[in-house]
Amino acid sequence: MRYISITSAHLPWSFKVHAANGKFVTLEDVFDTIYRSLRTNITQPEFHSFSSEKDQRRATRAYEDRYRRQRSTRSYEEEKRGGMKRVDFLMGRTRFMGISNNGRRPDEWHLSVT
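The structure corresponding to this sequence follows.
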């Protein structure tokens, strides 16, 4: 397939993965797309798309935990200044467990994380 769509129960958007070689999607395409998408800063409407203030607080806490894990002062400040990213919507569920076809269409896949 030249592209696939990946969704997650923890994210309000999907990843559109396009084949870099123009012929078929590779694992590199999948990993690169997921990585780049999750490192994207969130927008105000995305932050307010959470169903509850509790989820907003949990995502904010994930952001704070992410920048506080940095070992060097420079990295700490860089991450903190960089702001909240889409990865923070996973609220700490950052262990990649794979992708699987959702069974409806061959180009629709589901991201599993813990």
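The two ends are 27 Å apart (CA to CA).
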